[in-house]
Design goal:
Length: 558
């Protein structure tokens, strides 16, 4: 029963941490892109940003996976990502510092308050409630786990197991390296199984509070958790590009080097114990053992970061040599699966992919219109590839649809939920432009094969519509890129001007037919041409108009 209750406490601890992280992430989700832009300024900004993001996410593994996604999508370089990883290791110490507090008096009030606030209709209040509820459950789970693990001291068999890995220094002040290696291995394996270094450190703190584990043994396990936590990033990078795999390797090397440096300090005695532990006691004063362990975790990560900051570039070069780039260009995946866990970033990636899709579908229509107006050799070659390009547009639409469908399964705030159908509709519009470009191409092919020549007036009207359509498309692309807070009037004005130009062209053309100035067959084809152009314009304007449904809600997609 003891182990069942302890496992239940661990489950509550993990669930509370996840809930608190989710609440904080929802509140800060839209700022993630802003923080990401801050990453690129310099290594110190990257460290600070990594620290902040990990403090919000409550997991260095999650931050590192997010960084892997950013690299795979082409949003970060390797040196930038290493700085963030350094900061993530500092940010993850916040959890240990939190669980080391004795704040049992606020646990139930936090659970009650958080549960109540989570039912509010206000998005911000609901997110705050979720965060407070997670905070309460985290400490409630820690209390249960701690009280159950204290009973371990009553079982000599279990205590003897822990004694096997006891790392207390000998009379000469040296820690037994055999026992230390064993505790590090335990930390590595436990973290790989639980997939959370914060949870493992929580267990270590609970065990130390029960009296079955001393500071020396706890630090040994703590060092192992820092290596074990890098496995998650390694697994995430398996399907990513080489640069992302280099970043995952940098994470492992950073933590492993930190462990080696820390273990090396164990060989320097001071006050009858290794200097590292002497320093921890000086920092912690008369604080409890759990606080000393939390401080040891913080000291390890902060000191390692400070020592290795000057070596970010050499570390990147080492990773580049161990995982060299191939001759082929690095492939970036805009719709990166790991970014689904950061919905605001995922939505901005979809908008960027949609922008590219719109450019390509319009290029198809533009080339087809040039068949009559300016059919150069390069344009003729492009037109020959239209079927393959139309298939590519269809594939992009399916990819966007699948990505957004997967995103629907993630925890979303209401405005993110509303943005998904908007982007789906926009993707459908961009795909339709490609379809109508193909139909327009068949019509143009017929016009060319039958050597049909429109009147000078009709040609001027066609050229005018072509220029207006191109300008409208550039406006739509700009809206997707620049994230305006409201619709520019120029888009509506351009739409009205094109509609009027098409209406005028149809009326003028009908008058030419009535007056016998135009061959009937030519007139029918020209009217079909106008109808295809009208449909293409409608879908371009649909995209421009729908961007208003997420203006000011998506991060800047640069």
């Amino acid at each position: 029963m003891l182990w069942v209750n302890a496992a239940g406490g661990l489950a509550l601890f993990l669930f509370g941490m996840k809930l608190m992280s989710r609440g904080l992430q929802k509140a800060a989700g839209e700022k993630m892109r802003m923080i990401l832009r801050f990453f690129s300024s310099n290594r110190f900004a990257g460290i600070l940003s990594g620290t902040v993001v990990t403090s919000v996410l409550q997991s260095s593994s999650v931050t590192t996976i997010m960084v892997i996604g950013f690299i795979n999508a082409g949003l970060l370089t390797l040196p930038q990502s290493i700085g963030i990883i350094f900061g993530a290791n500092i940010g993850t110490t916040i959890t240990a510092q939190l669980v080391a507090f004795k704040i049992g008096i606020v646990i139930m009030p936090s659970i009650i308050l958080g549960f109540g606030l989570s039912f509010f209709k206000s998005e911000k209040i609901s997110q705050l409630g979720e965060t407070i509820l997670g905070f309460g459950l985290l400490f409630f789970g820690m209390e249960i786990m701690g009280s159950e693990l204290k009973k371990i001291a009553e079982y000599p068999a279990f205590v003897s197991v822990f004694q096997l890995f006891r790392c207390a220094p000998a009379a000469n002040g040296m820690i037994p390296m055999g026992a230390l290696s064993g505790t590090i291995a335990v930390g590595v394996v436990a973290t790989m199984i639980i997939q959370s270094s914060s949870a493992c450190i929580g267990i270590v703190i609970a065990l130390s509070a029960s009296g079955v584990m001393d500071l020396y043994t706890a630090v040994g396990i703590l060092l192992g958790t820092n290596i074990g936590t890098t496995v998650t990033a390694q697994l995430a990078a398996l399907t990513a590009n080489q640069v992302a795999r280099q970043a995952a390797l940098a994470h492992t090397l950073f933590n492993a080097i930190g462990v080696v440096i820390t273990v090396a300090t164990f060989l320097i005695p001071m006050g009858g114990e290794p200097i590292f532990f002497h320093l921890i006691r000086q920092i912690s004063g008369d604080d409890s053992l759990p606080r000393q362990i939390a401080n040891a975790h913080t000291l390890f990560n902060v000191a390692t970061t400070l020592l290795l900051v000057p070596f970010i570039s050499p570390l990147a070069k080492i990773c580049g040599r161990l995982i060299p780039l191939k001759a082929d260009p690095v492939k970036y995946v805009r719709l990166e699966p790991h970014l689904l866990n950061t919905p605001s970033i995922a939505l901005s990636q979809v908008a960027a992919e949609l922008r590219k899709m719109l450019k390509r579908s319009w290029k198809m229509a533009d080339a087809v219109l040039n068949i009559y107006i300016d059919n150069s050799e390069s344009n003729q070659e492009y037109v020959k590839s239209l079927p393959q390009r139309e298939e590519e547009i269809d594939a992009r639409q399916h990819a966007i649809s699948d990505y957004l469908t997967a995103l629907m399964l993630k925890p979303l705030v209401p405005r993110e939920t509303r943005q998904i159908p908007v982007l789906l509709h926009c993707a459908n519009d961009a795909e339709k432009i490609g379809d109508y470009a193909m139909e327009l191409g068949e019509l143009m092919k017929k016009i060319k094969e039958e050597n049909i020549q429109f009147s000078e007036s009709a040609e001027k009207e066609l050229k005018l519509l072509h220029r207006q359509l191109d300008a409208l498309t550039q406006d739509a692309v700009g809206l997707l890129k620049e994230n305006h807070t409201q619709h520019p009037e120029s888009v509506y004005r351009a739409h009205r001007e094109i509609q009027k130009a098409m209406d005028d062209a149809e009326l003028t053309h009908m008058n030419r037919l009535y007056e016998g100035k135009c061959v009937v067959k030519n007139g029918v084809l020209f009217m079909e041409l106008l109808e295809k152009i009208r449909k293409i314009e409608r879908h371009i304007f649909n995209i421009a108009e729908r961007t208003g449904d997420f203006y000011g809600k998506l991060p800047d997609i640069g």
